[in-house]
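new request in #modeling-help
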Amino acid sequence: SQTIHQWPATLVQPVGSPLSLECTVEGTSNPNLYWYRQAAGRGLQLLFYSVGIGQISSEVPQNLSASRPQDRQFILSSKKLLLSDSGFYLCAWSFGLVVDEQFFGPGTRLTVL
Amino acid sequence: GNSVTQMEGPVTLSEEAFLTINCTYTATGYPSLFWYVQYPGEGLQLLLKATKADDKGSNKGFEATYRKETTSFHLEKGSVQVSDSAVYFCAHIRSSGGSNYKLTFGKGTLLTVNP
Protein backbone atom coordinates (compact mmCIF):
# COMPACT_ATOMS: atom_id res chain seq x y z
CA SER A 1 0.00 0.00 0.00
CA GLN A 2 1.02 3.59 -0.53
CA THR A 3 1.92 6.03 2.23
CA ILE A 4 2.87 9.68 2.23
CA HIS A 5 5.04 11.36 4.83
CA GLN A 6 5.65 14.98 5.63
CA TRP A 7 8.07 16.59 8.02
CA PRO A 8 8.39 18.41 10.17
CA ALA A 9 4.91 18.30 11.64
CA THR A 10 5.21 21.78 13.11
CA LEU A 11 7.69 24.57 12.56
CA VAL A 12 8.16 28.04 14.01
CA GLN A 13 10.50 30.26 12.05
CA PRO A 14 11.48 33.95 12.21
CA VAL A 15 10.76 36.30 9.33
CA GLY A 16 13.60 36.26 6.82
CA SER A 17 14.80 32.76 7.64
CA PRO A 18 14.93 29.94 5.05
CA LEU A 19 12.45 27.10 4.79
CA SER A 20 12.58 23.49 3.69
CA LEU A 21 9.60 21.16 3.99
CA GLU A 22 9.89 17.62 2.77
CA CYS A 23 7.36 15.16 1.43
CA THR A 24 7.98 11.56 0.44
CA VAL A 25 5.72 8.90 -1.00
CA GLU A 26 6.19 5.16 -0.60
CA GLY A 27 4.67 2.24 -2.40
CA THR A 28 4.20 3.73 -5.85
CA SER A 29 6.28 4.91 -8.79
CA ASN A 30 6.12 8.10 -10.82
CA PRO A 31 3.33 9.72 -8.81
CA ASN A 32 2.04 13.18 -9.52
CA LEU A 33 2.90 15.37 -6.55
CA TYR A 34 1.27 18.52 -5.21
CA TRP A 35 1.88 21.19 -2.58
CA TYR A 36 -1.12 23.01 -1.09
CA ARG A 37 -1.38 25.74 1.50
CA GLN A 38 -4.34 25.98 3.83
CA ALA A 39 -4.72 29.42 5.37
CA ALA A 40 -7.30 30.07 8.05
CA GLY A 41 -10.70 30.73 6.51
CA ARG A 42 -9.40 30.52 2.96
CA GLY A 43 -9.59 26.87 2.04
CA LEU A 44 -6.86 25.09 0.14
CA GLN A 45 -4.71 26.74 -2.48
CA LEU A 46 -2.62 24.71 -4.92
CA LEU A 47 0.94 26.04 -4.91
CA PHE A 48 2.92 23.62 -7.08
CA TYR A 49 2.51 20.36 -8.90
CA SER A 50 4.96 17.95 -10.49
CA VAL A 51 4.52 15.17 -13.03
CA GLY A 52 8.11 13.91 -12.87
CA ILE A 53 11.63 14.40 -11.58
CA GLY A 54 12.75 17.97 -12.10
CA GLN A 55 9.38 19.01 -13.53
CA ILE A 56 7.69 21.69 -11.45
CA SER A 57 4.72 23.89 -12.31
CA SER A 58 3.79 26.87 -10.20
CA GLU A 59 0.18 27.87 -9.75
CA VAL A 60 0.56 31.26 -8.10
CA PRO A 61 3.40 33.75 -7.90
CA GLN A 62 4.85 33.75 -4.43
CA ASN A 63 7.80 33.64 -2.14
CA LEU A 64 8.09 29.86 -2.32
CA SER A 65 9.69 27.34 -4.66
CA ALA A 66 9.47 23.59 -5.09
CA SER A 67 11.84 20.90 -6.25
CA ARG A 68 11.61 17.20 -7.02
CA PRO A 69 15.10 15.72 -6.79
CA GLN A 70 13.86 12.12 -6.75
CA ASP A 71 10.80 10.34 -8.08
CA ARG A 72 9.01 10.18 -4.75
CA GLN A 73 10.42 13.24 -3.02
CA PHE A 74 8.92 16.72 -3.17
CA ILE A 75 10.44 19.69 -1.37
CA LEU A 76 8.96 23.10 -0.64
CA SER A 77 11.47 25.89 0.01
CA SER A 78 11.90 29.55 0.63
CA LYS A 79 15.03 31.66 0.88
CA LYS A 80 13.39 34.28 3.12
CA LEU A 81 10.11 33.66 4.90
CA LEU A 82 7.39 36.30 5.15
CA LEU A 83 4.72 36.58 7.82
CA SER A 84 2.15 35.77 5.15
CA ASP A 85 3.80 32.37 4.59
CA SER A 86 2.27 31.09 7.83
CA GLY A 87 -0.22 28.32 7.30
CA PHE A 88 -0.82 24.61 7.07
CA TYR A 89 1.08 23.02 4.19
CA LEU A 90 -0.22 19.82 2.69
CA CYS A 91 1.53 17.52 0.27
CA ALA A 92 -0.53 15.20 -1.89
CA TRP A 93 0.00 12.61 -4.59
CA SER A 94 -2.09 10.98 -7.30
CA PHE A 95 -1.74 8.31 -9.96
CA GLY A 96 -2.76 10.64 -12.76
CA LEU A 97 -3.49 14.22 -13.59
CA VAL A 98 -7.11 14.55 -14.50
CA VAL A 99 -9.76 12.70 -12.54
CA ASP A 100 -7.85 10.72 -9.99
CA GLU A 101 -8.27 11.03 -6.28
CA GLN A 102 -5.47 12.83 -4.50
CA PHE A 103 -4.02 11.36 -1.31
CA PHE A 104 -2.91 13.84 1.30
CA GLY A 105 -0.13 13.80 3.84
CA PRO A 106 -0.58 14.77 7.49
CA GLY A 107 0.55 18.36 6.88
CA THR A 108 3.07 20.78 8.34
CA ARG A 109 1.95 23.69 10.53
CA LEU A 110 4.25 26.64 9.79
CA THR A 111 4.23 29.75 11.96
CA VAL A 112 6.36 32.69 10.89
CA LEU A 113 6.99 35.21 13.66
CA GLY B 1 -13.78 30.26 -14.27
CA ASN B 2 -13.84 27.17 -12.11
CA SER B 3 -14.93 27.55 -8.52
CA VAL B 4 -16.59 25.73 -5.64
CA THR B 5 -18.90 27.39 -3.14
CA GLN B 6 -19.96 25.64 0.02
CA MET B 7 -22.01 26.81 2.94
CA GLU B 8 -20.08 28.68 5.54
CA GLY B 9 -19.82 27.26 8.98
CA PRO B 10 -19.41 26.59 11.63
CA VAL B 11 -22.22 24.08 11.84
CA THR B 12 -23.08 22.76 15.30
CA LEU B 13 -25.43 19.80 15.71
CA SER B 14 -26.50 17.40 18.40
CA GLU B 15 -25.74 13.73 18.04
CA GLU B 16 -28.19 11.87 15.77
CA ALA B 17 -29.27 15.09 14.02
CA PHE B 18 -29.59 15.31 10.22
CA LEU B 19 -26.74 17.00 8.39
CA THR B 20 -26.72 18.90 5.12
CA ILE B 21 -23.75 20.85 3.83
CA ASN B 22 -24.50 22.63 0.58
CA CYS B 23 -22.02 22.76 -2.27
CA THR B 24 -22.35 24.29 -5.73
CA TYR B 25 -19.77 24.58 -8.44
CA THR B 26 -18.97 26.39 -11.64
CA ALA B 27 -16.85 24.67 -14.25
CA THR B 28 -16.49 24.19 -17.95
CA GLY B 29 -16.96 20.65 -19.13
CA TYR B 30 -18.07 17.88 -16.83
CA PRO B 31 -16.05 17.82 -13.63
CA SER B 32 -15.73 14.98 -11.19
CA LEU B 33 -16.91 15.99 -7.74
CA PHE B 34 -15.49 15.14 -4.35
CA TRP B 35 -16.04 15.57 -0.64
CA TYR B 36 -12.92 15.49 1.50
CA VAL B 37 -12.85 15.42 5.30
CA GLN B 38 -10.16 16.79 7.59
CA TYR B 39 -10.17 15.58 11.19
CA PRO B 40 -8.47 17.82 13.77
CA GLY B 41 -4.73 18.07 13.25
CA GLU B 42 -4.71 15.76 10.24
CA GLY B 43 -4.47 15.96 6.47
CA LEU B 44 -7.41 15.51 4.12
CA GLN B 45 -9.07 12.19 3.36
CA LEU B 46 -11.40 11.46 0.50
CA LEU B 47 -14.90 10.88 1.88
CA LEU B 48 -16.80 10.23 -1.34
CA LYS B 49 -16.85 11.10 -5.02
CA ALA B 50 -19.04 11.12 -8.12
CA THR B 51 -17.78 11.23 -11.67
CA LYS B 52 -20.90 11.88 -13.74
CA ALA B 53 -24.35 13.38 -13.53
CA ASP B 54 -26.84 11.60 -11.24
CA ASP B 55 -24.09 9.51 -9.64
CA LYS B 56 -24.42 9.15 -5.89
CA GLY B 57 -21.28 8.90 -3.82
CA SER B 58 -21.58 7.34 -0.39
CA ASN B 59 -19.33 6.37 2.48
CA LYS B 60 -19.61 6.05 6.29
CA GLY B 61 -23.29 7.02 6.15
CA PHE B 62 -22.61 10.18 4.14
CA GLU B 63 -24.14 10.68 0.70
CA ALA B 64 -23.97 13.24 -2.08
CA THR B 65 -25.62 13.24 -5.50
CA TYR B 66 -24.13 14.88 -8.58
CA ARG B 67 -26.85 17.26 -9.82
CA LYS B 68 -25.84 18.69 -13.16
CA GLU B 69 -29.02 20.72 -13.59
CA THR B 70 -28.41 22.62 -10.37
CA THR B 71 -24.58 22.27 -10.44
CA SER B 72 -24.71 20.98 -6.89
CA PHE B 73 -23.20 18.21 -4.78
CA HIS B 74 -24.74 18.59 -1.33
CA LEU B 75 -23.43 16.38 1.46
CA GLU B 76 -25.96 14.66 3.72
CA LYS B 77 -26.00 12.28 6.64
CA GLY B 78 -29.09 11.06 8.38
CA SER B 79 -27.68 10.76 11.90
CA VAL B 80 -24.38 12.39 12.82
CA GLN B 81 -22.05 11.20 15.54
CA VAL B 82 -19.55 13.04 17.70
CA SER B 83 -16.78 11.37 15.70
CA ASP B 84 -18.02 13.18 12.56
CA SER B 85 -16.75 16.47 13.94
CA ALA B 86 -14.31 17.72 11.30
CA VAL B 87 -13.89 20.17 8.45
CA TYR B 88 -15.56 19.12 5.21
CA PHE B 89 -14.33 20.29 1.81
CA CYS B 90 -16.21 20.11 -1.46
CA ALA B 91 -14.00 19.94 -4.56
CA HIS B 92 -14.07 19.35 -8.29
CA ILE B 93 -11.68 18.46 -11.06
CA ARG B 94 -12.33 18.39 -14.77
CA SER B 95 -12.95 14.96 -16.24
CA SER B 96 -12.28 15.89 -19.86
CA GLY B 97 -8.90 16.22 -21.50
CA GLY B 98 -6.73 19.27 -21.71
CA SER B 99 -4.40 20.89 -19.25
CA ASN B 100 -6.87 21.81 -16.52
CA TYR B 101 -5.91 19.21 -13.97
CA LYS B 102 -6.52 21.36 -10.92
CA LEU B 103 -8.48 20.06 -7.94
CA THR B 104 -10.45 23.15 -6.87
CA PHE B 105 -11.62 23.24 -3.26
CA GLY B 106 -14.32 25.13 -1.44
CA LYS B 107 -13.33 26.98 1.72
CA GLY B 108 -14.40 24.20 4.03
CA THR B 109 -17.20 23.84 6.55
CA LEU B 110 -16.43 23.12 10.19
CA LEU B 111 -18.87 20.65 11.72
CA THR B 112 -19.09 20.17 15.48
CA VAL B 113 -21.30 17.43 16.85
CA ASN B 114 -22.17 17.60 20.53
CA PRO B 115 -23.16 14.54 22.59
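bot summary: The longest strand of chain B covers residues 86-94.
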